[in-house]
Amino acid sequence: MDGTTTRGPGRSVLAIGAHPDDIELGCGGALMAHVAAGDTVTMLVMTGGENGPGDDGQIAGRRAEQQRAAELIGARLAWGGLRDCEVVADSGTVRRIEQVLRETAADLVYVHAPDDSHQDHRAIAAATLGAARRLPRVLHYQSPSTLAFAPSVYVDVTAHLAGKLDALAAHASQVERSAMVEPDAVVASARHWGAQARIGYAEAFQPTRMVLDLAPAAPAVPASVPAAWALVPAHTSAMPAGRR
Amino acid sequence: MDGTTTRGPGRSVLAIGAHPDDIELGCGGALMAHVAAGDTVTMLVMTGGENGPGDDGQIAGRRAEQQRAAELIGARLAWGGLRDCEVVADSGTVRRIEQVLRETAADLVYVHAPDDSHQDHRAIAAATLGAARRLPRVLHYQSPSTLAFAPSVYVDVTAHLAGKLDALAAHASQVERSAMVEPDAVVASARHWGAQARIGYAEAFQPTRMVLDLAPAAPAVPASVPAAWALVPAHTSAMPAGRR
Amino acid sequence: MDGTTTRGPGRSVLAIGAHPDDIELGCGGALMAHVAAGDTVTMLVMTGGENGPGDDGQIAGRRAEQQRAAELIGARLAWGGLRDCEVVADSGTVRRIEQVLRETAADLVYVHAPDDSHQDHRAIAAATLGAARRLPRVLHYQSPSTLAFAPSVYVDVTAHLAGKLDALAAHASQVERSAMVEPDAVVASARHWGAQARIGYAEAFQPTRMVLDLAPAAPAVPASVPAAWALVPAHTSAMPAGRR
Amino acid sequence: MDGTTTRGPGRSVLAIGAHPDDIELGCGGALMAHVAAGDTVTMLVMTGGENGPGDDGQIAGRRAEQQRAAELIGARLAWGGLRDCEVVADSGTVRRIEQVLRETAADLVYVHAPDDSHQDHRAIAAATLGAARRLPRVLHYQSPSTLAFAPSVYVDVTAHLAGKLDALAAHASQVERSAMVEPDAVVASARHWGAQARIGYAEAFQPTRMVLDLAPAAPAVPASVPAAWALVPAHTSAMPAGRR
Amino acid sequence: MDGTTTRGPGRSVLAIGAHPDDIELGCGGALMAHVAAGDTVTMLVMTGGENGPGDDGQIAGRRAEQQRAAELIGARLAWGGLRDCEVVADSGTVRRIEQVLRETAADLVYVHAPDDSHQDHRAIAAATLGAARRLPRVLHYQSPSTLAFAPSVYVDVTAHLAGKLDALAAHASQVERSAMVEPDAVVASARHWGAQARIGYAEAFQPTRMVLDLAPAAPAVPASVPAAWALVPAHTSAMPAGRR
Amino acid sequence: MDGTTTRGPGRSVLAIGAHPDDIELGCGGALMAHVAAGDTVTMLVMTGGENGPGDDGQIAGRRAEQQRAAELIGARLAWGGLRDCEVVADSGTVRRIEQVLRETAADLVYVHAPDDSHQDHRAIAAATLGAARRLPRVLHYQSPSTLAFAPSVYVDVTAHLAGKLDALAAHASQVERSAMVEPDAVVASARHWGAQARIGYAEAFQPTRMVLDLAPAAPAVPASVPAAWALVPAHTSAMPAGRR
Description:
Low-confidence stretches of chain A: 1-8, 216-244
CATH topology of chain A: Rossmann fold
Largest interface: E-F, 53 and 53 residues
Helix content of chain A: 25-40%
Oligomer: homohexamer
CATH class of chain A: Alpha Beta
Largest sheet of chain A: 7 strands, mixed
């Protein structure tokens, strides 16, 4: 979880949200901590771009706000091109996320928690779990509409709480939708989770899987695992090479 | 999760187990990865030392085996001084663990999973959760007697699997008790969890809480949190300073 | 949870089910208890009305049966207008439920449990959780097709069990579909849950959230919370008023 | 959940905590809401009284603080007579709680959550579940040391948050133990749970079972349940009357 | 769980998978154990047949491979006729599975675990739970893409592990899709679950419900249940016979 | 799960309960089904025998009642020799259960569910899980004091429900303790679980692990597992034979 020279120029992190401001609210502080640690951060907002509701001016305004918020966080911004309130976790959505995963070569993904009362959040969480099926690190953040949430992984955001609120404030046009996003509740939850984490202010994450970075450089597998451990039975030599 | 220079000479890690070889079996590979990353590792074996069963020679033999295993891992060894099969999670056990936590200044603890069919394992897990109540990082490992286990945090042990087996082999006298500790099952579980973690071979951990290390140096809280966020109501000025 | 004069003419309760007789089976006794306590109850049946299968006579017959059952319970009846076995939790379904929530001003909702083997039940539970995202009271009832169900909230239906069976019996034409709805199982489950609840006969509910009614009249927030607790950081004055 | 005249002078509520200030922290606001609604509230503090650590003056001081806190809440105070950090859930502890349950005729109990890293909290939660085995209402509150906590029942404490902090402040001598009890975290958690409950500020509870009060007066069982439902098989007439 | 003469020619078992090789991977060993015990086994592969991707030759090749794998297991093969990556749990999918359940008269079903990152696996698990809503035995197997999985039912596959690998090897053309299906991981998981089950090598299953076969021949219900237990209230004589 | 000739004279089943009548109530019907299928059943009652409360006549009376109940079920009876309400899950309790497991050579154990509000039930469940740590089949039954209970394994007890009630009625002296054991609730729960299991009347069990019996005779491991799968790394030849 660092940006040491042994890993080169830092980790590539991808945060995915269904709507503008979902990512800032769920993991904006953690993303700023990643940027501060030298990691590269990309925010993928699945709806609210070219296909969003409203006239061209409103769409352009919303896109500009999201761009401003990404800049405050220090992240690159990508759009998913889906339509608000009509997201489904079909193969098209999975492929769009797979494409951004390839472009960013991310190996840590932040996304909505799977159990959420908003259909778009559920769909994006499900599609991300499909697209990231081979990634060793997938963390889920909480939204105001999240239902069951049992976090066990935390990031200290004490140094980034003001920045997170500034990023949220960039979304001036989201007024109606954001009736559930109150700044004092954002601060309160950070303090609540901070107490759970035994630190100051924290963002909380429910991990699907989280491989820790301990070693500066892992040796190749063949070097340390004796042949007998390969577990390939001798008599199934008909098994095609591609399957191993 | 690293030992970069910004954190000084590396993290202090404490692994706690009820009996000789519990720690090696549950997280021996992860401990070797910590050592390889420059962290300081202490193994606290709660029973099997001076109060163990057997005559003086047997006790000395078992202590020598555990010492040898710790050396293979590269860890310092401490004994809890409790008696095998009679461990309870009372205040005495909690205090013994608190003492080692203070001595090592550890901020990451590995210990048995709480739901285990062996009474000593349950007691050590419970006592450790009490002793480590202010620590931001507590991870639980699986034992052959563990019941419900839902891991989500993993460490890549591909480079350390042979070393882990060597450390387990150092416990030659544990023959009878270790009927449930079969080397092939150790390798198989590492491969099974590795597939879950989307890496080669892994040890799996159930987190009570795990604060990630992202930033090289966190600023002090007052510097970044506006006064209004301190959440201390003005009219409760009678609240003693020590409680804040 | 009462209809005392301090709350005026009683609470408005909304019960939602996918098909005719789902509501009676899941929470018919509780609804009769609400009526007896002076609350206003609305039953929203999402399918089986104008779009249902069968010829016009069958449809009219089924609607008349449901109307009779609602009258036995003492509830107002509303129809969702969806088609049996083809319900999805899309924005249209959410909006239909939101509309009835607005019309009834309900602040307590009963609906299917989310984990159910019938696709319509799952969809209605999910859509209701979306539509009721700002409501403080959402309780889930069990159906014969419900899978995981962990109730912790109960209503004593001893006085209403006979009435519940009468309301179920009003659905004479539902014979085929109701092979899983056996009156003796209805009584047995009420007794089983009654034993769990430490009362006579009970209906059992799994709460998503349930705010209890303790105080006759809650003072407004500003009166009792010091300004410092508002948690709004001073320097984010650019935050638009609408977001607070 | 009310104090209507049909239930006479109001409900009898019992709150149980292991140590001084546990109850105030976990459910102090809810208790004040009960008092405001006309309910009778008793606080049972299991340790810290006559058997507590310290000299007679310290013990007397701590008891006076707890008495002052109970007065601020409007509750009667009872002591469990156990020794701090040495509580076990044995038959003696169960009997002590049973005795207070009988004296108060309470039918709603608040107590620690069962999964807690403090051994005394675990023991009191377990003993209370035993003592209250026939009670229809048992709610668990969160402590700073609580581990898994999945609340679904909430009480609005907006009107009582200042009072709760005052009651906590009465425990001036608990300075050392209360390092985990920070007023700003108390406010933050109330706001966090309030957002979860869709109200202002809330205390959150995990229910073991919670029977709702809907009907002003429930008829007796025989009046409404036909004889056939009694489920007593005719041929087991040898069954003693006392078992029915 | 046997094929004794009292049950006639053996149980009818149905295994359902979304894609070619899903069934072999998830429960191929258990199916071979069923065949060895005299049970009749049918494999229902929902996609990859006539509607699959690729030209006619590729489709025919894939179908031939699946046919060969079924023969190695000793099972009859059926196709669901759905399209890969586009499966939804709608009424059409449910009806297709109901049809095969009727044809096979199966009373034990194996299917994907419900919580899976692949949309087709989720859909097939959900549709099967709907179609098998009246069956007393539904067991879920793990796939490489399965997320939460808490098995408690196991089948000893020590005698069938080589056969399972042979059946998997029959799917030579599935190379690309099967990057997550590595033979050594198959063996390792069987050993891992075997250790959990306290046997050699095992396949692990999460039960939705599993009725055990204990008695060679169960008497009819009326013979042993006194009339009073029928729980049918006398006064609801208007209840139609079909509902009882 | 049968008593076919291939398994010789039938399975040996051990049911364990804390007090007289706990076993009958939790799994009496299943035990009768085992007996009917030719299995050998032993009931181990841990308290209430020679160390129980009351004078010698009362103790003798209670023992005679339990003996009569065991005879009605067709089971052998054993006593654990512990004292009512003072059971702890220490090594002595574990050893007593281990002793009976050895004597009976049981490979299927029924015992209390682990999460129970009665301390003796919790202790017996925990001690049994320790004693049965190498057994492939451990099923937990529900008691009136059981808390969380999520059954997924069922036994059809339609043919044995009357017999179960007769066995319970044999415990005439248990009047006071059995206030929570009402025959109508026993029948109701059997019907409730029967509906969950999709059969008539059922007893429900939460499995810790349940290995199914499919094959009439399993070949030895070495015969079917190629050498390469043994997973024993070549270079750790120092590993003592006893550990393999």
